[in-house]
Design brief:
mainly alpha; 5 helices
Length: about 70
């Protein structure tokens, strides 16, 4: 079974789970995925900074991850 993310998942951990989720983060305006401060943020923190809906992002990422099984 593929892993899942939560709003508390650290961005770097989410990317390690499946690097193909990067477009979901880019779509919310997070264009510096490799910088130390962003990779240490949770998905919820990133959504707050970029004005995105964390519940939608988590749902979209988890749906994508489920399709990858």
């Amino acid at each position: 079974m593929a892993g899942q993310v939560t709003k508390d998942t650290i961005i770097l951990d989410a990317l390690k789970l499946n690097p193909d989720i990067a477009p979901f983060l880019l779509d919310i305006g997070m264009h510096c995925l490799g910088c130390p401060s962003s990779s240490g943020e949770s998905l919820e923190q990133a959504c707050m900074v970029h004005g995105a809906d964390v519940d939608k992002l988590v749902s979209d990422i988890n749906a994508f991850l489920a399709e990858q099984e």
